[in-house]
Amino acid sequence: METIDCPFEKVYPSQLARDVNYFMTHAYNEAIEAYKKDEVPVGAVIEHKGSIIASAHNQSRSTNDPTAHAEILAISQASHALGDWRLNECSLYVTKEPCPMCSGALLIARIGKVYYGLRDEKMGGVGGAVNLGALPNSNHHFESIGGVMEEFNHAILKEFFKGKRELNTAKKTSGSSRTFEFSE
User: Which residues are catalytic?
Assistant: First the structure.
């Protein structure tokens, strides 16, 4: 597994204030782990009665599994931790708005509440593009609150994709300067 340098440092919040920022900071730290593993830096934690019972980051690239998003992995961990697939007394904290796949899983898991950092206008599933947590005919609904530590969460994603673009440009540039010699 390839590891890359991450220009962001982990943050260690005080255990005394277990508020929204406390839990989102732990999700942010998971995003840093994803960055180091050359995964899209999205991290998630699930909280139940004031304690983190699940934490994960994206692993789609390393596992070649398009469903290995931070939210899906955290849902699975939380369900195992509680011994129940219903997570209605839990809250998810995720650095970027969940996609429709993850939002659907949150709906099925009966998540209590979702907090996210960065809104996703193109693929967000809890308000950015669509809101699966508020489907009118669904037997479950959940509240979602965005903008939590938005600047931190935006900065890590922006830097990650900036690095990817620079790498792609360098590959194209080095590839175009090659000369081929043919012998007769």
Answer: 71
Judge whether residue 121 has pLDDT over 50.
Answer: yes
CB 107 within 8 A of CB 131: no
Among 40, 59, 31, CA closest to 160: 40
User: What pTM was estimated for this model as a whole?
Assistant: 0.91
Q: For the sheet containing 43-48, what is the strand order?
A: 51-57, 43-48, 90-96, 113-118, 143-145
**Biggest CA-to-CA distance, the chain:** 77
Whose CA is closest to 95, among 141, 49, 160? 160
CA end-to-end span of the chain, whole Å? 43
Q: Where are the beta strands (DSSP E) in 16-133?
A: 43-48, 51-57, 90-96, 113-118
